[in-house]
Amino acid sequence: MYVVKVLHGYIGKEGQRTREKDPEKLLVFQSKQESDQFATKIGGRSKHISKMRKD
Predict the structure, then answer these.
(1) Given pLDDT bands bounded at 50, 70 and 90, which one contains residue 21?
(2) Straight-line distance from the first to the last Cα atom of the chain, in angstroms, rounded to the nearest whole number
């Protein structure tokens, strides 16, 4: 699973930046290619997640 990281946060399901690290609230991609394409469009980077802690 991959998420898109921007500045000091991640992209949430609503399409806005959030500091939440809960995978249920983040926009999750199943393939790196999809994540990279979206990250390139918005100026972020793709990040692989296996287990994220809920801080």
Answers:
(1) confident
(2) 19
H/E stretch holding 46 = strand 45-48
43-55: b (≥16 Cβ within 10 Å) or e? ebebeeeeebeee
Q: Classify 21 as helix, strand or coil.
A: coil
Q: Which phi and psi (to 5°) does residue 6 adopt?
A: -135, 145
* Number of CB atoms found within 10 A of residue 12's CB: 17
> The pTM is what?
0.81
